[in-house]
Amino acid sequence: MAPVASEKLVKGVLDGQVSAIARLITRAESGEESSEAALGEIYKRTGNAHIVGITGVPGSGKSTLVAELCKTIRADGRKIGVIAVDPTSPFSGGAILGDRIRMGELGGDEGVFIRSMATRGALGGLSRATLPAIDILDAAGFDLIIIETVGVGQDEVDVVRAAHTTVVVSAPGLGDDIQAIKAGILEIADIHVVSKCDRPDANRTITELKTMLALGISLGDHADRPIPVLATSAASGEGTDELVEAIDDHLKWLKSGDEWQKRCYRTAEMRLLKAAEDILRDKFESNRDGKVQALAKRLAASEIAPQPAARQLLDEVWKEISL
Amino acid sequence: MAPVASEKLVKGVLDGQVSAIARLITRAESGEESSEAALGEIYKRTGNAHIVGITGVPGSGKSTLVAELCKTIRADGRKIGVIAVDPTSPFSGGAILGDRIRMGELGGDEGVFIRSMATRGALGGLSRATLPAIDILDAAGFDLIIIETVGVGQDEVDVVRAAHTTVVVSAPGLGDDIQAIKAGILEIADIHVVSKCDRPDANRTITELKTMLALGISLGDHADRPIPVLATSAASGEGTDELVEAIDDHLKWLKSGDEWQKRCYRTAEMRLLKAAEDILRDKFESNRDGKVQALAKRLAASEIAPQPAARQLLDEVWKEISL
Lengths: 323, 323
What we know:
2 copies of one chain form a homodimer.
Chain A: H1 6-14, H2 18-30, H3 35-43, E1 50-56, H4 62-75, E2 80-86, H5 98-102, E3 112-118, H6 130-139, E4 144-150, H7 153-161, E5 165-170, H8 176-186, E6 191-194, H9 202-214, E7 229-231, H10 240-256, H11 259-286, H12 291-300, H13 306-322
């Protein structure tokens, strides 16, 4: 099969064709240079979707919650896209497929698009394709795009910064150890969800979150907006409608003042820095056998310190780019 | 109190003075530009310590293990330094002090230096002071330096890449959810430790690890060296001597071939890239109200795509640096 031309793919995406969407995401993932122009075209058509980050530690039940959300939002007639960012081995690059499998029951509906992505280790960090994949779904006319991440690490925080609305999922009965990982993400919530609320210890988790909010521990950007704490149960389906309502309300709140623009600006700033870092890493990679090697050898021998070595590298590499 | 001059601090560090070590680490943490020259001097005196990364999910008992290791290694007469990198809120920046507290019983011994460091969120990532702190302890004559990290996220993987020997701690009885987080770090182990081996389910964990190794799932760099799986118990003190022996053996193995040099080169390469990224982020930060703002605004309005915007930014910023 001959490769599909970029223009045709872009057109397919803008027409909302699932096959074109899937292909362009794959192209973005493979990092083909040829995808850059297409993604640039796509980017210019973005800005219409409501991007919702859903995050929580492993075991918090977020994948189940996302599946419930998809069903409820589809029932409204809205199109919903899901990008699930999985923790993965930094070396093997293999994604854990659990989320994808659990959401399988939604397959076959063209108004739902679900994609699992691996985070990349080593010199990569967050898969470069995550943010472009959101762009692609946005440009393809999806009304709501969910980014599902495990709430640990810098990459996840960055993904959350690309969302307009952030939902943090907590579950009753997780150990103290896992709660400690969670501490860092509680404060980024626009909406709190306590999943598995059919469990007897769910009330304690709800009370803890409400107390934390009442103490003002996590006011953050939200000083003039109370942060809802919702209870959901995948077993009974309880709470999903309320969550959809809370997500829609948050969007209204964002657009009622200057908060929407503020968040779009914050995302743009983050993407600018990420794109610059990507360019830097590419230059590093392509000079690995040349300038990088020469300097890394001197660094390994403690002949030069990292800061001056890096400055020298940037200077040499940049001259080359500017030419 | 007048600030201590950099030269005096460097001299103090090289003489192994604890107060000078602590102060220079603090200076590195605060990111004062004045610390760069001092850290450069320090860097040139590094290369003698054995750097050991100890990593494992929360609840694996690594802090207790590190405390046991400190006691055993001190009993040999060796100087030991510990840098504990804690997960922390990306927004508040506050470190979880548990590790520091638990290791408190070692206080008062000048041959043991323990420092907790926060990871930085937002635009920071791993605290920039972590690697310099290791340099400082190395130059100060510590024989063994332990970097203790929670094994999740890119930052932790980067820290591990700065170690000569990596110990991965597993504990029996952690849930599947937390095991999934762990999957990514198992393959980076030079030595496996199963903690809490007094627990009845410890044997299962040991068998699982050995099976994994036998299946060749995590051979990685180590194809010609069997990876030991050790059992330790903080309750009985069992296994700590064996772990010290395994760590020392690994160092001998590294130095018996070209592996030592390979790892030093790998670390140098990583530090070169990290330093270049730091410079880029600093430039980004210092241009935030100017060039960055102008481009981020156009990006937020979808008038330009991230890649060309980043290229333009780098070009403009770089011209400025090169002048």
